[in-house]
Amino acid sequence: MRNANIFTIVMAMILIFISNLSNPAAANVDNSPSIDYQVISSQAEIVKPQSSNANGSLDVHLIPKGSTTNANRDPIDVVFIFDKSGSMNEAGRNPAKFQSAKNAMDEAVRFFKEQAGPNDRFGFIPFSSAVELGKIVYFSPNNPHESLELINETAQSLTADGGTNYTQSFESAMEMLSGSSNNKYIIFMTDGEPTVSSSRETVTYNEKKCYIFDWFCWETDNRITEEVTINYELYGQKPYTGYKAFFEAKGIDYDLRPGKGKAVNAIRRHGLNAAQNLAKQNIKLFSIGFGNHSEVDIGYLRKLSSITGVTARQASQETIAPVFQDISADIDTPAISGEVLVDIGKFTGKVSVPEGSNARVEGNLASLRFNFNYPVNQGTPQPIDLSLPLGFSEIGTYTFDNIKLKYTNLSGEVVVVPHPAVSIEVKADAPPSFKGMMDITGAVNPPDHLVKVSGSTDKMNEFKVEYSLEPTGLVDRTVSGSLNNIKLIQPLPDGISVIPSEGVEISTFEGRLAARISLPDNISYSNGSFRPGKLLAVLDLKADWAVSNVKMPLAHLQYTDSRFGEQRTTITASNQIINMKVRLHEFPANAYDGDVAGIVTKTDLSQNGRRLGITEFPNDYGLKNKPIKDMIFKPGETNRIVEITYFDNEKVNMYLTPDYRLTGIDSGRIYEDGMTSYENLNMNLVHLVAGKGSKYYYSIENKNSSTAWTEFSPQDTIPITAPGLNSVKVKAEGGLAIPGYQVIKTITIQKRINAINVDPNPIEIETGKTIAFNINIEPADAYNQELKTEIADRSIADFSGDHRLIGRSEGRTMLVIRTKDGSGITLMVPITVKDPYIALEELKFRKAVFKIGLNEKIAVTDLLIFNPDNATAKSIELVTSEMGNKVTAVLENGTWYLVGKEIGYSNVMARAEAQRTGKKPDASALFEVTAAGDYGNGGPAGAGRW
C-alpha cells in the first residue's frame, strides 16, 4: 500500500511538470534581468608563423534577458573630468567652442539636479597640462545639489590654456572615487589627444654633478639604475614639433631622448594603463571627444572607455550638449555590469593578450568588461559581441576550460556563470584565415549621433560599415591555392536595415536578420603571399527607429579554400556605438527629438541643442515607453499636435497646447465652442501638454465678472456659472508647451427656468373680492423670466391687476403659467372662488311663551334663534304684535324692541329680511305682560288671568 502511495505521488508530480511545460504561464517564468553568453573560437584552427605568435581570438556573444519595471537605481558617484587646455578656445580664436563645452556642463548639471538621489555624489576635475588642484570640486556628502551648483560655477569660471594630460586626471578621479560603495562613473571630456603624462619607470642614467647654484652641471661615469617619475610632454602643432622627457633625481633635472615616437607611445600607454586601473576599481569611463577626427583620436578614446565596459562619443559644438545629456541619462539608467573572465594561467605563458587590446589581464585572468543599460519598461537590451584577442607562442591544442561570466544583477547579487570548454588548435599548417576590422562612418552625422529628420531625405540617419579584410596565415611558401566564393555575413541589430546596393542580399543567419555580401574578388596564394593582399567591402545601412548604444554584431566570413575546402572565421565587432534619434523641426530653430525610450526632448538648435523641455515616464499625457520611429505635425492643427509613430507602428498624439471640454452640469452634454447653454457648465482638461513640469492656468471673462489667470491641476473641475457670454481661456507653461499659446472658447450661458413657485397655491377667493399672488422663479438669475399667465375660466376669476385676481363667480378654475425661455415649464394653480352669502333658513323664538314686565323694554333679536347662526342676512325686517295695546313693537335706530304696555297677552311675530331666494323667515311667540316682578306661574297678584 505504501509503495502504491509513492507511485501515485510520483505520477502526480510528473503530470504537474508536464502541465507546466505545456503551459508556460503556469510555470511562473522569471523575467527579471539577467545575462547569458556564448563563447566560441573565431577560428578553430590557426597557423603558427615560425618567428611570431599565432593570432586567434575567443568571440563572446552576450545575451541580455528580462526587463525591469523598477525605476530605482543604486546611488552613484560621478566625476566630471573637464579639458581646459589651450585648444579648447583655439588660442582665443574660437571662444564659442569653450563656451559650448561650458553650456554642455550646465545641461549635465541641470539633468543630475533633477534626477539626483540623496546618496548620489558629484565631483569635478579640470585639467590641462596638469590637474588644476585649486579648481577641484570634491564630493559633498548628503548634499548632491550643493556639489552640482559648485561644479557649474567652477566650470563657468575656467579659462583655457596648457596641454592635455589624461593620465593624472584619471588618477585624481580614481583617488576621489576610492573607497566608495556607490556605482562609480567618470564623464571625461577632451578636445585633443594626450600630450602630457607622468609615470613611474625604472631608468639607468649617468649621475650629474652641479656647482654654483646648479649653473654648471656635467655627467659623471657613475651609472645609476632606479625608479623615478618621468614626465613626458609633446609640444607644437600636431604631429608635434617637439617633445620632452625628463625626471628629477637628487634635486637635479635629467633629460631623456627616447625619440618622439616613443614619447607619443609612452603617453598613450600611460592612458591605457590608467583605464586598466579604472576597470579594476569598477569605474566606468564615458569619454567625449570634442572635435573632428584631425583634432581628437576618437579610436583611442573608444579603447579607453571600452576597457571599462562602456563607450566613447564624438561631439561637435552643435552636439556637445545632447551628448552630455545622453551620457547623463545612461548613468541614471539601471544597468547590469560585469566581465567575462578567461583563465590563461594554465598555459604557463604560452598564451598572451596583445598589448593595447580592450581586454584587461590581472594575474592569470583575461577580462572583457561589459555594461547593459536596462531602461525602465523598455524590454530587453540588444545583444553585443566582444572579442578577446590571443597570441599563441607554440603549436598545440589549447583548451580554455575555466571561462566565467561574472556580473552584479539589479538586486545587487553577484552572479557567476561557468561556460563549457572552448578549444583552439594551433598548427604548423592550417587553412589561411583573415584579419579583419570593421569601421562605421555616418553618411552625414557620426554613427553615435544619427538623426532621422521627419519628411527629409538628407541621409542623417544613414551610415556605412566598411570592412577591411586581410588574408593571413600562409606560412608554407611552397604551397599554392586560392580562396574563392568569399561571402561576408553581417547580422543586423534591431532597428537597423539595409540600403539596397549591388551584391548585397537580405537573409537570415542563426535566426537573425542579416546582410550577405558576395565579394567579387578571388584570392590566390603562392610563394608565401596573397594576391590581392586586401579586400574591401562596404555595407550601407540606416536606422529606422530610435536606437541607443547599439553595436554591430561581429561579422562572419565564409569562403572556400582550394586545399582545405569550406572555411569560416569571424570579423571582430567594432566598439563603435550607434545612436539615433528621430527629429521634427519647428520653425525657426527648435526641434523635437524622440529617443529609444519614447522620451521627447525639445531643444533650441540655435543654442547648440540647449534643452527647452523633456517628457517623462510615467506620464498622464499618453506617450508610450518605446522607441520612436517617426514624428510629424498633425495636418490641420497648426503645429499644435505631434503625431508620434513607434517602432511597432502604433501612433499617439502628443499635444503642445492643452484642450478642454465644457460639459453641462445637469445634462452631461458636451458643448462646443460658440454654443449656447441653458445650464451651468464644468470645464475639464482632456488633452494635457506633454513634458515634465507642465503647469496649467485658466481665465474666464464675462461682462459682469472676470477671473484672473489662476493655476489649476489637470484633475480639477472648473465651474462656469456666470450668465451671458463667457470667454474661457486655458494656457500651459513649462514642459513642451508652446509659450504664450491660449486655447479660447466662448460659451453663452442662458439659464432657463427650471421651476416656478406661486404663493399662495392653491388660491381661494370670494366673489367680488381680490387677492394678490407672488411668482418665484428658480434659478433667480434665469436669463428670460418672461411668463405667459392665463385663467382657464375667466367668468369665475379674472385678473384685476399685476399679480392680482378678482373672484367673479363661485366655482373652480386654473391659473396657468407658462415659461417663454424654451424650458417648456407649465404650472397650473387651482383657483377656488367662493360666494360668502349664507341664506337664513329658519328663524325661531327661543321659547313659545315669554313674560315681559310692565313697561319693560326687550330687544327682539335677543330672543331669536337664527339658523344658521352665520347667515349673511339676519336683519329683522318687521315685528308685529296682535295686541298692540298690550305689547308694542318699536323700531329704534334699526333695532326692534318689545315694550309691555298693559297686563295681558299678545302674539308677536318677527320677520327677517328677504333672502336671495326671496324667502323671509319669520317666527311667533306669546308674550304675557305682567306686573313688574310677577314672573310666577300665576303671574303677579292682581294682574288678571289667562
UniProtKB/TrEMBL annotation:
Q: Which residues form the VWFA domain?
A: 77-340
Keywords, A to Z, come to: Signal
Checking PROSITE patterns in the record gives: VWFA (PS50234)
Instruction: Tell me which positions the record assigns to the signal sequence.
Output: 1-27
The record ties this protein, via CDD domains, to: vWFA (cd00198)
Q: Which InterPro entries match?
A: ITIH, VWF_A, vWFA_dom_sf
List, alphabetically, the Pfam families matched: VWA_2 (PF13519)
What is this protein's name? VWFA domain-containing protein
Which species?
A: Bacillus canaveralius
